[in-house]
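Methods — Computational structure assignment.
A single polypeptide chain was analysed. Its primary sequence is given first, followed by the predicted tertiary structure written as structure tokens.
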Amino acid sequence: MKVFYGGFVLGDLVVIFKGLVEFAALILLGQGLVYLLSFGRHETNAVYRFFRLLSSPVVRSVRVITPKQIADRHLPMVGFFLLFWLWFGLLLAKAAIYIPSSVTPAG
């Protein structure tokens, strides 16, 4: 049985959101790796600034939902962990949608 939502199958929406979450997490991971490999000169690195531009919506969203005691420099890491748990939840939702239930209806 397929569940439709606005012309899309619900499983398709889960897959699309999961892909967007994966993309955002990989951007944050790349930003962190460039930060580590630039040895303190990350602000002058064009690749780091590009990753920071791409990850800014995630970091701004994390700033809105986190307490003010969390320093701004920790927000990308917090965002990465939040994206990881969101990805895990979407993975479970995808499994629940696409893996058929073993329970057969009576009748």
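Note: The chain has a mean pLDDT of 87.
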